[in-house]
Amino acid sequence: MQGRPLPEPSPLTAGFWEAAADGRLVLQRCDACGRHRHYPQHRCPHCREAAWRWAAANGRGRIHSFTVTHHAFHPAWTGRTPYVVATVQLDEGVRVVTDMDEDPAIVRIDAPVEVFFEDTGGGRALPRFRIAGRPASAPADRDGRPAARRGAADTHTTTEGNT
Ligand SMILES: [Zn+2]
């Protein structure tokens, strides 16, 4: 792959990553108070109940906040700058942090976003977000920026470490 660091599933997070590999976004939902939470935690931050289950999320939300990164902090991101890291407020009421597959010039606070799943190989996938309503094959990226979308229609594929 591209040599970038990828998540290491733990017993607590394995269900999240298994769902992502299947193209589904799930969140923990408390058995007692019914509230969602993210990132995965052993107890509900609202009522301290330990019982929970994975619940499907609809994959939609809005940009709560974002930053534009201009300096790669890891060699795998060289050539991908500038890129957007956003906090997304999901419809389920929790926030997730994501790097976005978008031109920073079009990213705005409160913009609607939707999840997509980047195939990272080895039967794993990374949930990421993009501006909602954009066709998956739309050329959102500027020339030369590696695309990270699942799907063969995108012409902006990377050659970086492509083995
Ligand atoms: Zn609870």
General description of the model:
The chain is mostly beta strands and 163 residues long. Helix content is 5%, strand content 33%. The protein has one helix and eight strands. It has one helix at residues 14-21; strands spanning 26-30, 36-37, 52-56, 60-69, 83-90, 95-100, 112-121, 124-131. Strands 6-5-4-7-8 form a five-stranded antiparallel beta sheet, with helices on one face. Strands 2-1-3 form a three-stranded antiparallel beta sheet. Strand 7 (112-121) and strand 8 (124-131) form a beta hairpin. It starts with 13 loop residues before the first helix and ends in a 32-residue tail after the last strand. Zinc ion binds at residues 30, 32-33, 35, 44, 46-47, 49.
Topology:
Layout: H1 14-21, E1 26-30, E2 36-37, E3 52-56, E4 60-69, E5 83-90, E6 95-100, E7 112-121, E8 124-131
Antiparallel strand pairs: 1-2, 1-3, 4-5, 4-7, 5-6, 7-8
The chain binds zinc ion.
Zinc ion binds at residues 30, 32-33, 35, 44, 46-47, 49.
